[in-house]
Amino acid sequence: MTISHDVSGTGSTVLFVHSTVVDRRMWDPQVPALTAAGYRVVRCDLRGYGDSPVPDRPYDNAGDVLDLLDLVGADSAALVGASGGGRVCLELAARRPDRVHALALLCTAVADHEPSAELRAFGDREDELLEAGDVAGATELNVATWLGPHADDATRDRVRLMQRHAFEVQLAATEEFPAVRTPVDLSAITAPSLIVSGDHDVIDFREIATRLAAGLPGSRHVELDWAGHLPSLERPEVVNELLLDFLANRI
Q1: Taking every annotated instance into account, which residue ranges of this chain make up the domain AB hydrolase-1 (predicted)?
Q2: Span 132-147, mean pLDDT?
């Protein structure tokens, strides 16, 4: 199955992978800035998000993204991933370092992270709300958890729309299939990396950023004192500048 995607602009390929709170529409503010700078922007919806259907068998997100690179004719690309999408980008960069020449990770997850009490409490509460049929409550929990205090109402509405859609698509599935995740060998990653974290994010993602900055070659860690978990939506102009500066020196 080819995951849903879109392609804008021409030039070197930059492929965006969304957070699992939202879908590829989270990158709407980045597309015009990058295409204007001369990049070809590819955005995808992981399975069960946006326009990609839920999986009908065990699935491999990193493999799906690699297949998409083949489909759009990109021998290599810069990858930009947020949260769960960052975890996918890390898996692909470790598995196929020849296909990834730059790696930007925004508040990224990693496959082997042991969740904190705060993150476990969030997951437990989300499960309780969904099991009770309170999709609206679970959606509001996510909006409150993942956006920083400076996010405006329009941004909260956008995240609310995308998270609600993801819940509706996933809850409608008759059977749930697991994602195949490969352990990430950080030493296998050769791409230079930009690691962004938010001072108002859940502590797990700030700790992951510190760990990756110490373990990835040629890495630069930027912590944003105003940001929650989705800085590219909260203040897109700041993140666009960070991405363009990073990419200009690596493509």
Answers
A1: 13-236
A2: 98
